[in-house]
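Support request from a user on the community tier.

User writes: "When I paste my structure tokens into the form, the page sometimes reloads and wipes my input. The last time it worked, I copied everything first. Here is what I submitted, just in case something in the input itself triggers the reload:"
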């Protein structure tokens, strides 16, 4: 796995001063975690945005703070909703010699014969798996090939996922990830002919027609 390193500098700016920091092109962040008290840091904004944009929450990133390296996982990313740029990041420092549990996202790939040949619909179950591993062995994502869904009724469950022997899946084996189901029946609009519209004697008409029948009855009474 490629080692991802972000260089950081200590940050003293807080509160309103952080806005000026962002305007200067820096990204405020904090690191905390394994044997580390929270440390406020700054990252080069453009470089950090480029690197963090391709990392998941289970991707290991090393924060280089004045020559000292902190292996970390991204725990929270705050973003400007208008500009879609990062405004703050939390990094959790981890130990490379201790296993941790983390959520890893599932990515569906491939083409399902059930969809192609039988117009099946796919129902998604789990979107991520909880795994246990050393931080450096955590997968960035879990890729699931839906080509295994050959016919309607086929499904892929947790027990079907094969990962490295360094990674242990913690979810229940029978939990469903994706299922191929029969296509939804299209509603066909019924065409009613004048003959079919005649209400049989003694039959209770639908409410939408009841008002019309009552109105016609009143007209007949008035004629009498």
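"...and here is what came back when it finally went through:"
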């Amino acid at each position: 796995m490629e080692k991802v390193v972000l260089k950081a500098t200590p940050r003293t700016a807080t509160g309103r001063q952080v806005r000026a920091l962002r305007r200067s092109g820096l990204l405020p962040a904090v690191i905390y975690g394994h044997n580390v008290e929270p440390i406020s840091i700054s990252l080069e904004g453009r470089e950090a945005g480029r690197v963090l944009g391709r990392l998941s929450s289970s991707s290991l990133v090393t924060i280089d703070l004045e020559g000292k390296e902190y292996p970390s996982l991204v725990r929270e990313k705050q973003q400007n909703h208008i500009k879609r740029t990062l405004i703050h990041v939390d990094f959790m420092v981890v130990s490379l010699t201790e296993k941790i549990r983390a959520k890893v996202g599932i990515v569906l790939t491939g083409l399902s014969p059930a969809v192609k040949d039988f117009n099946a619909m796919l129902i998604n179950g789990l979107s991520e798996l909880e795994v246990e591993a050393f931080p450096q062995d955590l997968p960035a994502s879990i890729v699931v090939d839906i080509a295994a869904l050959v016919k309607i009724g086929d499904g892929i469950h947790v027990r079907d996922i094969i990962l490295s022997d360094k990674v242990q899946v913690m979810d229940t084996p029978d939990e469903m990830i994706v299922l191929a189901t029969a296509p939804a029946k299209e509603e066909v609009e019924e065409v009613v002919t004048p003959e079919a519209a005649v209400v049989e004697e003694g039959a209770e008409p639908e409410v939408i027609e009841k008002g019309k029948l009552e109105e016609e009855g009143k007209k007949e009474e008035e004629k009498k």
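Agent notes: The reload is a front-end session timeout and is unrelated to the input. The domain at 5-93 is CATH 2.40.240.10 (Ribosomal Protein L25; Chain P). The chain has two domains: 5-93, 100-181. Escalated to web team.
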